[in-house]
Amino acid sequence: MANLWSGRFEKEMDDIVKEFNASIGFDSRMYDEDIDGSIAHVTMLGEQGIIDPEEVKKIIAGLEKIREKIKRGEIVFSADDEDIHMGIEARLTAEIGDAGKKLHTARSRNDQCQVDGRMYLKKEIDEIIDRLCYLEEVILDKAEHYAEDLAIGFTHVQHAQPVTIGFIFMAYFQMFRRDIERLKDTRYRMDLCPLGSCALAGTTFPIDRQKTAEILGFRGPTENAMDSVSDRDYSIEFISDSAISMMHISRWAEEFVWWNSQEFGFIDIDDSYCTGSSIMPQKKNPDMAELLRGKVGRVYGDLMQLLTVMKGTPLAYNKDFQEDKESLFDAVDTWKTSITIFANMLKNTRFRTERIEEQFSEGFLNATDVAEHFAKQGIPFREAHEIVGKMVKKCESRGCGLEDLTDEELKDVDARINRKLLGDISMKACVEARGSFGGTAPTEVRRQIRVGRDFLKAMKDDKER
Asked: Which one from 78, 261, 277, 361 is the annotated catalytic residue?
């Protein structure tokens, strides 16, 4: 098959160069977007009187026929096609004759690949937002279930303060909510149609770019033709969004690996999300959590790859830009799968609350609450902090908890304190007392859950409008 740009050349491409140059092996996944873009383009050309209406009908019918053939697997692309744009156009001309040669009027592959990419990514963003919303629903349901169940809050991987399991879930809810909001922002910024920018400078034909944008569901056309064909910010921004979200998944997956260990024993992950050992019959390994933790490295690599491709490219289009797609597709596929697997793993994980409670005696989880009790009685907090530090030291020497110190031992630490001044410093009381906005008290966790459900409802309502 002759190249569609072969008029200037006397020699065919070397076979190895042809393979190296081709993107059809990966950009063929955008055939639907490519055909939709072509139909919108030729429709506009017909309405503007640039192409005869009968030829427009013929071109559209030919494109739809090619679409069906691709879906049925009757068209097999090869390096001779170079990319999805040329592959479809060549087959269109073979299908309908000379009318097919008019399709490329007033456009270039430079703006064509851009409109394909933006349409593809808009669709994928919508699906990823749906998957993130599903994950958020799982989180809210779990948070509701464990709203009053106590857990250990860590800082520096040391026991810090008592919290609730629901509170931990709601912390991650906020992370994934930000991921959704970032994606919505990205989608809004990229929702502009580059079609009609041509190679870099627009066209002399009297095209209507607003019309093509409208047909394809964009909120308008891009403003500057040169920027339109050389912009990959939307892909970089999307992969950045995916890298941040995958980092969130990885953080929680890391905790799942800890919590699943014999040393912690906080959770029981369903067998369907674990694997065994080829040699140790007793093992139940949290492999899905470990894989999710590892997958973030792929997406970080995708982001760095595309940033590196773009960093030294002058205006306008450069062949380097062909390297934008594989990293984008990989980030899309990895993120989508990771969200679904992680959500289902969460859904099928049970927290072993009795095992968690066994560890409450370690690490003086109520120390901060004691200091705050003293501060409420008029002792300056900095002094209260020092007093409780001395109490902890005394407890360590005795091998007891803060609540076990006698009046005499407390007076020995500081003459102002006694057991009555300690108040109720049980783990349950400590958690319930932390009702400040955003705190871990069950009442406050339930408020956060209500806000979370309102957010998801607003997302659903927005989608249905």
From this structure: 277
